[in-house]
Amino acid sequence: MTRNVISVTHDFGHLKRIGIGASWFVKVMGGTKEEQEIAYAAGLLHDIVRPASEKVCHAEASAKESEKILSKLRLDKDTKNLIVQAIKDHRLPVKWVSPLHQSVYLADKILEQMGAFVAFRRCYYVGECQDYKGVEMEEAFRKHFAYRMDRIKKTDFPKSVRRLLDYQWKWLQDFSVLLNKREPWAVRMSSHMFEAAMKRIHLEDAIRSYKPDSKDAERYRKEAMDYLEGKKFGEFEKLVNP
To answer: What is the pTM of this model?
Structure first.
């Protein structure tokens, strides 16, 4: 399943998690059942065109490809447009018109680009990303984490999710600091994920096979696995203000 995917970090596992996350955000932000279903569909399609590079606007490309796919289904025009718009605008913040419109963006940025899980995911992505070919591994980690953290501005998110944002952001920020300090367990964990990417081992399998060698490493792995297994949403919901 992994072999023919251009970017393993954006394979069906990622698409499914964004579908679940987008639907969840609509629910906790007061959206209807129908809007939750539409958000789930948008999440499944949001990275349908996703090269292993940051030099292509995959949101625009995915929106266009999704429009082609949806045109073959019995969907009314308004529903199709809602799905396509959520996909098109998931990469960068825009003027949001509804929780549904913003749902894919929130799921992608807060659940898949922050948190303990993303410490594993980002290191894996560096191993497969064309933009870092020829760059020494630890330097690539530092560049990529800095690039990602610079792109995320807390003011781009609604106040209702700010506590969840802070919770997820801290995992990412702390790990970035540890990498810059060359904390041994953080370097070993990063190397494990980088090497898994080079071997095209599935992302989730790489996390499962990781053997923590410190309490902090175990804490990160447990948090990541709890997210992957869907165990975090009850806790996350307590951090969202309706």
So the answer is: 0.88
